[in-house]
Specification:
Layout lengths: L26 H28 L12 H22 L2 H17 L1 H10 L7 H16 L1 H9 L7 H26 L12 E3 L7 E3 L3 H4 L2 H14 L9 H4 L6 H32 L22 H20 L1 H20 L9 H36 L2 H15 L2 H11 L2 H24 L8
Antiparallel strand pairs: 1-2
Helix pairs in contact: 1-2, 1-5, 1-7, 1-9, 2-5, 2-6, 2-11, 2-15, 2-16, 3-6, 3-9, 4-5, 6-7, 6-15, 7-12, 7-14, 11-14, 11-15, 11-16, 11-17, 12-13, 12-14, 13-14, 13-17, 14-15
């Protein structure tokens, strides 16, 4: 990746950078870049999924939205992430790693602060909340810039591990915000800004909460991330203008890998955003399950973080295995596992309301099935990101990573819209058929003996 003819020189711009040359590769710089950008990416996911942690409880703190409005609200960050990823995918060669990561991290403060103030006033209008949900999607959009940027710093033999660590740890931001929100909102000592809210409970006695904490707590970390990126990162002067970056679309593997990443990350992101609402609808106090005699409705807050946690953990743990065994075989495992786990979960999408015992049994089936879906989607997230640097040359690999990530980021939006217009069982059936298609593609193109593009 020599840049001797590139006008960008000195300061933040590295010269004659070639990670494939072991003798000249600056390994400490590469790992420093990975850890700083991973910290920033984790905050991006926190900002992206902050609405998903707040929306299920909005009506309990004084708002009055319909089920459809809540699904649309939860879907909006996904729409934004998909759109903004199409923008961020072209930024690494233009801005460089340092400026892109620092400025993006600083920008997260806008939606995070916005949500912190909005939840304090139940009269905040629905359009304002839609706008804040859309702005939160900037955190999701950053992924398509951060990941290609990081790929410039590592040799191909380490691409699976490096990108898997960054994406996997970054994905933990989803679980982090969903896990910590219930604890943070109960800590009055943290509420240095704003007034408390009254949370409706099953007993009828309201509880004092501070939902602004779920947002404001992250501001100091955002500041640290932005400052660290600005002062400690460097940039690789990749030579690729916007026109050159779009030559990836003439390569058929761009389109096949897009489908595979929709199956994996699209599923992970879509279910992460909608898991709590779907659980509430099927087994919570807001759905018809609450009317079953003797049945104790499920509190989604206790379980919603588990799915993203399992998916993110799988991405981290399986990334080294993709470096050792190749990505294609694990993408195949991911697809087959998704087929089985989706089929299992479908048996619990129409709960049996005849008794409390059957409801509880159905919920266990639903929960374990959903966690299995998250597990196999996480494995596929790791394996597909190993495949792309192996299939494409470095400049194109960055663009393909950005593009596939952009399209898959529409997952939360598409999942949210689908669950408002069709029964969950119908939507899962479509997902099952899509997974079968992706398994066939993986086997024929990448995983079988003599495949055209073994990866």
């Amino acid at each position: 990746m020599s840049s001797t003819t590139d006008p960008r020189s000195g300061g933040e711009w590295l010269q004659n950078w070639n990670p494939e040359d072991e003798a000249s590769w600056d390994k400490p710089l590469a790992w420093r870049t990975l850890w700083i950008t991973t910290f920033a990416l984790t905050l991006c996911f926190v900002a992206w999924f902050l609405p998903s942690a707040l929306i299920p409880k909005l009506n309990s703190i004084g708002f009055a939205f319909s089920k459809s409005q809540l699904y649309w609200l939860a879907a909006m960050p996904g729409l934004s992430a998909g759109i903004t990823r199409l923008m961020w995918m072209i930024l690494p060669p233009i801005l460089g790693t340092r400026r892109m990561v620092a400025l993006t991290t600083a920008l997260l403060a806008v939606p995070v602060l916005g949500w912190g103030f909005a939840v304090q006033n139940a009269n905040t209008s629905y359009p304002v909340l839609l706008l804040l949900a859309f702005l939160a999607g900037i955190g999701g959009g950053a992924f398509s810039g951060f990941m290609p940027s990081t790929s410039y710093f590592f040799p191909k033999r380490m691409a699976g591990t490096a990108l898997g660590l960054q994406a996997g740890i970054g994905n933990f931001g989803v679980s982090l915000v969903q896990l910590l929100t219930p604890a943070l909102v109960g800590m009055g000592a943290l509420a240095v800004v704003g007034e408390s809210q009254q949370l409706k409970t099953k007993t009828g006695v309201p509880t004092e909460v501070w939902y602004q904490n779920a947002a404001f707590t992250w501001i100091p970390f955002i500041i640290v991330g932005a400052v660290a990126a600005w002062f400690l990162l460097k940039s690789v002067p990749i030579k690729a203008n916007i026109k050159q970056q779009f030559d990836i679309f003439s390569n058929q593997d761009t389109w096949w890998m897009t489908l595979l990443y929709i199956m994996t990350f699209g599923t992970f992101a879509g279910l992460s955003a909608q898991f709590g609402l779907l659980m509430n609808q099927l087994y919570g106090a807001t759905g018809s399950a609450a009317e079953v005699a003797g049945y104790v409705p499920v509190d989604a807050v206790k379980y919603v973080f588990l799915g993203p946690l399992v998916g993110a953990g799988a991405r981290v743990l399986f990334s080294p295995l993709t470096d050792k065994m190749g990505g294609a075989i694990w993408t195949l495992v991911s697809g087959i596992g998704l087929i089985a786990s989706i089929a299992w979960t479908m048996t619990a999408l129409n709960p049996d309301h005849t008794s409390a015992a059957t409801m509880q049994a159905d919920f266990k089936t639903f929960l374990w099935g959903m966690l299995a879906i998250f597990l196999f989607s996480g494995i596929g997230n790791a394996s597909t990101f190993k495949q792309m640097p192996m299939i494409f040359e470095p400049r194109q690999a960055g663009g393909v990573i950005g593009w596939t990530a952009a399209i898959a980021a529409f997952g939360p939006f598409l999942f949210g819209i689908a669950l408002t217009i069709m029964p969950a069982s119908t939507f899962y059936g479509i997902g099952l058929a899509f997974a079968v298609l992706c398994v066939v593609i993986t086997w024929m193109r990448y995983a079988r003996p003599g495949a055209p593009k073994p990866s």
